[in-house]
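User: Structure tokens for both sequences below?

Assistant:
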Amino acid sequence: MGSQNKRVNKKSSIVRVYLPPDANCLLSVWDHCLRSRNYVNVVIAGKYQAPQWLTMDEAILHCQQGIGVWKWASNDNDHEPDVVMACCGDVPTLETLAAVSILRKHLPDLKIRVINVVDLMKLEPETEHPHGLSEVGFDALFTKNKPVVFAFHGYPWLIHRLTYRRTNHENIHVRGYKEEGTITTYFDMTVLNDLDRFHLVQDVINRIPKPGEDGAALKELVKNKLIEHKKYIYKNGLDMPEIRNWKWS
């Protein structure tokens, strides 16, 4: 967690921070880093078996762009979304996609745009970092006025630091590491930091206008899921089957 926060304090001309969401993106990023010269490259990746979201060709293109809309997970159909769900890092990506699947099932009319960030410096303005997005480019992705729920691998304040000049910054809500943890299950670590799929669903419902009765019912459902999760791991010592066996569909 701390390495990326320290590195972004270095001169922007030499620092690059990458958070690949899956193995193919990790291979693409690593290949790029090994070919680069005169840069400080920081790659944040896990060491556990995780879902593969992109083919190798898709991963290469996504990593070259550094940031992008995952249209296969979105349902805004290239129109203005009701909410943007952004993710940066392997675990935040998994939990964001799981949250999106819950929202799309229970609130099918909600237009969701999913954005994945590989190159953290894309969030900075182009005037501050060579990899930074222009204002037009950032607004095209994150909109000018829609709620953004951002799941991040590191400290939430870092995302705010990188985006505080952006048009829609006041609508960006970040979930990330808040130094909560103990000897517990994999999924419970995300719950302790409010970075899990159920908290992300609650965040969306709290920020979209007029969630209605379906939104209220879904909020109650995920609240009960969090209670069920705690009871299950206390009794069984591992995560619920629906968590362990979850797959995108």
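Moving on to the next sequence.
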Amino acid sequence: MTYRVLCVTDKSDLPETELFIGLKAAGVDIEVMCNPDGKHYGRLKDAGVPVMDLILKNRLDFAGVRRIRAQLDIKRYDILYCFNNPAAATALMASRGMPCKVITYRGVAGNVGFLSPGSWMTHLHPRVSRIVCVSDSVKAYFLSLHFLDLRLNSRKPVTIYKGHDLAWYQAPPVDLTQFGIPAGAFVVGFAGRNRPNRGLNYIVDAAKYLPKDAPIHFLFLGKLTEDMNLRRQIDQSPYRDRMHLAGFRNDAPAIAGACDTFILPSVFKEGLSRAVIEAMAYGTPPIVTSVGGHPELVIHNESGLVIPPKDPAAIAGAILELYHDPVKKKHLGENARRRIDTRFHIRETITNTRRLFEEILKE
């Protein structure tokens, strides 16, 4: 089957970039409109993927609408694949009256509803053929939406995991002593912003359940150094001297690879954490909560530990379980790496995306 696809996105991340490259290598006639300031923009061009510059500021970016419409007037596309809300809204406006199919992508649950005007500009728009969900939990969220007798067509949301490749994570693990962590310490890693759904405060609270003489240190990556609420909480912790704020780092995966465990105690709206996947790719066993896509990514006692949300004691218990059992820690880490290489590999994303394209074009 021959067809042409136009992907509209912002600053394409690595899995998204490799999806575009993989689709082109698989014979899909694909072109991409994206932000030229993206970290992987050059990778797309070097791989021979046709790229057009597009910077979208919001959902009502009329300059973006005109830019996309001009491209649609030049070429006929069978599918428009939109990877964020501004891309979906502008592409739907630009393609009005055209026969192309529209696919949107959703990486988190929440903030979509039948009473939300913005949702009708994006995922709930009648012209959207499919919503690609990053996890079954996000798909289930869409299927749960309702207003009176109004519900989403059950065929509309589909799950396609955002795949990775172990080959992307070959940088050697980082020496953690640069952060003031003593050699030989047991290190618990975290990466991300201190958003309400991430549960970072529960990690800090968990320290009071740990023995004071255990050489356990916490390493927090991300834009957290200016978070005064977090700093106050850390200052009140008995483990305050063992909590290290490393700031934003471009080598976060290699840092996670040097940790003994990586934790993300989300409390709600978790799709499929890239930070956890990157840690697993390095063989670092994860500790996650039974929220969102976490149980799809991590199998309890096989490729990591899954604990209840909002439970500092459970966090401390999981940390101590790995601290006291290095054999189990090693086993879980090996299985975590293997799980990314099999169940969450980019080749599966490419195959399933092609299958989706061909499915909607046959309808």
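User: Anything stand out in the second?

Assistant: Residues 4-163+345-362 form a domain with the Rossmann fold fold (CATH 3.40.50.2000).
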